[in-house]
Specification:
- This protein is mainly alpha-helical.
- It has one domain.
- 85% of the residues lie in helices and 0% in strands.
- Helix 1 crosses helix 2, helix 2 crosses helix 6 and helix 3 crosses helix 4.
- The longest helix has 30 residues.
- It is extended and about 65 Å long.
């Protein structure tokens, strides 16, 4: 392997390590203060909906499509803008709504996964898919059972756990790459 390629791999693994450490820190903070993380995520969703509204508006009026498309795009962009602004000005209510959606999605995804595992029982990975599905159902039911108070912790906790595990994964992969380079993987 050339020295330029090796240098690129070293830089990439260093960036991966830094990103992983940052994700772990964000995950720990979100787990420690899930209510703050939940509201922050709702605000982020509001901002993204407003950006989407602007994108729809630009697409509608810069398009050479029929006037009906421009009207539809304009109406959709106004609705998205109203929704995004409502989320920004009512982040706690938005968090409650997002939590309800998450509970339903977890239960539905869990049912589909369990059904898939049953349909493919005996196949490779079916047990793990079924286990993941059962776990998703349990999480969805727990969130729904404590609703609306679960809005104070559910989104932040789930996102925090996801960031923590993603960060750990990045750190382990980066460490493995660096270990392979040090142990002579570069002499091939």
């Amino acid at each position: 392997m050339g020295s330029d390629a090796l240098q690129d791999i070293k830089q990439s693994s260093s960036a991966m390590m830094a990103g992983g450490i940052l994700a772990i820190i964000i995950g720990i903070i979100a787990i420690a203060v899930p209510a703050v993380a939940s509201v922050s995520i709702a605000i982020l969703v509001g901002i993204l909906v407003i950006v989407l509204a602007v994108a729809w508006l630009l697409a509608a009026f810069q398009s050479s499509a029929a006037p009906g498309w421009k009207v539809t795009g304009g109406i959709l962009s106004v609705l998205l803008l109203i929704g995004g602004l409502w989320i920004l000005f009512n982040p706690i209510d938005a968090t409650i709504g997002l939590t309800a959606v998450i509970a339903v999605v977890f239960i539905a995804m869990g049912v589909v996964r369990v059904g898939t595992a049953i349909a493919h029982r005996g196949g490779e990975g079916a047990g793990l898919v079924g286990f993941g599905g059962a776990l998703a159902i349990i999480i969805g039911v727990l969130i729904a059972a404590k609703f609306p108070s679960s809005a104070a912790w559910a989104i932040g906790l789930l996102v925090g756990i996801q960031f923590l595990f993603d960060g750990l994964g990045l750190v382990f992969v980066a460490a493995a790459i660096k270990g392979a380079i040090k142990s002579g993987g570069s002499t091939a």
